[in-house]
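User:
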Amino acid sequence: MTPKVSILLPVYNGEKFLDAAVASVLAQTHADFELLVVDDCSTDGSVDIIERLRKQDSRIKFIRNEQNLGLFANYNRCLQQALGEFIKPFAQDDILAPSALEKMIDVLTKEKSVALTSCARNIIDAAGDVIRKKKPFAGSRQLKGQDVILYNMLAITNWIGEPSTVMFRKRYAGTGFDTRLFHYGDLEMWFKVLMNGDYYYIDEPLASFRTHAGSATNKNLSGLLFALDIVSMSETYSQVLADTGISDELYKRCIAEYAALQVDELVRNDGLDVESVIAAARKGARIGISGDDKETALRMMDAFIALSFHTLRTLTHTLKELSDVECRLGSDKEYLSRRLEHMEQSTSWRLTAPIRKLLSQQ
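Assistant: Predicted structure:
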């Protein structure tokens, strides 16, 4: 029997939180699903955990990759096996609320124009305690897909949500996740789906996103890989920006300024330095892991060169703007100096001298 929804769970060295993640899936109020688990050559106890769990529930399907593919390629391996009408990405660190599938499926079933739905989420720490809640809107709502793409690009963020917060129609999956991206492969996938229909936001935390020191998000932020992806995505979806009158050059300046602010925050708060950036970038790009180091290194080098170019162009604009301000201030100073000199030589200034002297003595 074909399941209504396919849950994609790529796994790599996830033993610490894997039991809790799978338990939250098996506790769903909507039971018509398949859980597709693909292990990406884990070296910890992840395989033993999944082997044990799949013996307890036939809805768990388990595959092991022969070689390490990386996160987004592994999502695609999961997607290739999916039989469901709807696709529910998931992550080994995260937790689903019991009604997550039920409420997301309900939206996609009732709202035929909706291509993708996501929800509010809890941000939890390693212990599972809620740090904060993320809600991009006050109340559930439906928006045009291309508007959502534009809003996320202008904000240079992903308020649609992480994989665990999203569900979409399988027929809009296209070629799947873009494996050339380092950090925002999930957001680009949401964009791809939203080119086909509307977006629906559920104002309820149906997923909990876990953040911790070893998470891929933290590594990619430290390695500046997020900025490389934004540059790449701005080229893929340049027409969406152009339709609103935003030039490519202006948007690239925004990316450079945003990346600079992120770096400054990491330096001040986490003591980030050049050596740690290089190490994090290499690790995030999986150099030394994937087996295609040369191709990956060249691709990353090209991306960093592009980012450096746009950053230098931004600096040039900034210096020119500062120079223009300096010139204006110089002109204003000269103008005020001449006006003051003229005023001091005027008859009215001389006649009011006694009054000013009297006022200065009070």
